[in-house]
Design a protein that fits this description.
single chain, mainly alpha, three-stranded antiparallel beta sheet, 10% strand
């Protein structure tokens, strides 16, 4: 394949030529690269960092247990640390990560802090994770 046949910009040229070698059709490769470029632009305009933060926060085993506890309703930090047999500092750290990711909400009552799930989407996310695990 000559450089002239492969097209517009260097990055697109390389991608088109590489895909064309794999699938054996230059026009099909050009069309697929255009579609992929459009998809990548759309993905990058969304907030992938926010999604990553949510997934990272929920991926930790201790934080996942906290989320599952909070499915049953609001709990104070002392109840969560007792249920998980964790120190207060560790429990507060995990709750802070979950709060910053938008997965839990905090309510203060005097010196006590109470936590609950941010909304029903968190429960749905946990349900979907279980469904995916079973397949």
């Amino acid at each position: 394949m000559s450089e002239k046949v492969c097209g517009e910009s260097k990055i697109d040229d390389e991608a088109i030529c590489s895909l064309a070698r794999l699938i054996g059709d230059l026009e099909k490769a050009r069309s697929r690269i255009e579609k992929l470029s459009s998809l990548v632009e759309t993905i990058e305009m969304e907030d992938p960092d926010g999604v990553v933060e949510v997934l990272k926060a929920s991926a930790d085993p201790c934080r996942l247990r906290i989320l599952k506890l909070l499915k049953e309703g609001e709990l104070c930090v002392c109840e969560i640390m007792t249920a998980l047999d964790r120190r207060q500092s560790s429990t507060s750290h995990h709750l802070s990560v979950l709060r910053e990711a938008g997965l839990v909400r905090e309510r203060k009552d005097g010196k006590w802090s109470y936590y609950r799930l941010a909304d029903g989407a968190v429960v749905e996310m946990l349900k979907q994770a279980e469904v995916l695990k079973k397949t």
